[in-house]
Amino acid sequence: MVQDTINVPNKWKRHLKPLILVTVALLLLGLSVWRTQQRLTAASPRAVIIDPLHNITTDLNFTGKACDLLVSNGYRVDTVISDDVTVEALRQISGYDLVVLRVHSGVFDKGVWFFTCEEFDGSKYVLEQLSGEVHIATCPSDPRILFAVGSRFVAHYLGELDGSLVVLMGCDGLSESDLGKAFVNGGAVGVVGWDGPVTLDASDVAVLGFLELYLSGVDVVDAVGVASGDVFNASLVFYPG
Question: Do the domain assignments include residue 3?
Answer without folding.
Answer: no
